[in-house]
Amino acid sequence: FNTGRGKGVPLSRNVFDKTLPLIPAGAAPICALEVGTADGTGSTRALVASLNKRCLVNRRSWHLFSYEGLVKEFSSAKHMWARQEGVTVVNEIVMTEQNHYK
Asked: What beta strand segments (E) does 14-77 contain?
């Protein structure tokens, strides 16, 4: 979803709020991968808000891996989400032995 390079267009959260209920009910944690297009303030923020809302109601844990491909944006997003439990920002999607244990 293009949210306007970090401007957090509300439509994005609305889309996530509508689609997350399609995930089957259960106690297993939700694991999501999001491909971001900016600095973590657009679709990433909207998805985190929707995951928090959905999983709080169902008492279900979640983890989001946010891929930010551009180095500068990756750096900003990683800093922004560093203290948020359940969010890991990466700029490599290929699993290597070195990054497997990060």
From this structure: 30-35, 62-67
Residue burial 15-47, b: 16+ Cβ < 10 Å; e: rest: bbeeebeeeeeeeeebebebebbbbbbbbbbbb
Provide the whole-model pTM: 0.74
Yes or no: say if 76 and 36 are a contact pair by the CB < 8 Å rule. Answer: no
Instruction: Classify 23 as helix, strand or coil.
Output: coil
Across the strands, what pairs with 87?
A: 64
Give the model confidence (pLDDT) of 52-98 as tens digits. Answer: 988 888 889 999 999 988 888 889 999 999 999 999 999 876 666 76
5: left (phi over 0), alpha (psi -120 to 50) or beta: left
Residue 31: phi, psi to the nearest 5? Answer: -120, 125
